[in-house]
């Protein structure tokens, strides 16, 4: 059994107000602008977040990658473009062929295909025509998903930006210890109620 399970970002739907600040923070954090402090207003490409706000009659919350231990997206990728790095599952965009298999495999719908941008313009696929010319076909598309802002010192941008504290890092090992402690405390109260003569409190 793996001793260290992967952490992931979890959303509390009871706190989420659907403001989409998490999406903007994510997009800005993953956009190379060459500026020391990029903000949404000075990006030279569209906002392309790696998490997606979902609104239903019952709840509103962002959905993002759970960094599964036996990740179906990574297992299904024919190009080997999805790999574990520093505890997070990341897409190596240079290896991605845009086949959409990871999108189909993800049980959470956390993977999306987006156009590649360079210097403010979408990178286009070209094909050679029969007469030797070149024809532009469509934008180059690659898979993207939450990578927990790997390499960002402050951690996931969405967690840092959420005005309601609806997003937090779920450290699975800590969560398990906390739940075990809560279960033990609950059991102790139950036993004390059944056997007050023992003098336990």
Automatic annotation (TrEMBL):
Q: Which residues form a coiled coil?
A: none
UniProt keyword annotations, A-Z: 4Fe-4S, Iron, Iron-sulfur, Metal-binding, Repeat
Locate the transmembrane regions by residue number.
none
Give one GO term, molecular function aspect: 4 iron, 4 sulfur cluster binding
Domain 4Fe-4S ferredoxin-type, which positions? 7-36, 87-116, 140-172
Mind telling me which Pfam families this protein's record contains?
Fer4_11
The family database entries (InterPro entries) matched by this protein are listed as: 4Fe4S_Fe-S-bd (IPR017896), 4Fe4S_Fe_S_CS (IPR017900), RnfB_subfamily (IPR050294)
The protein's name in its UniProt record:
Hydrogenase FeS protein, cytoplasmic
**Species whose genome carries this gene:** Oleidesulfovibrio alaskensis (strain ATCC BAA-1058 / DSM 17464 / G20) (Desulfovibrio alaskensis)
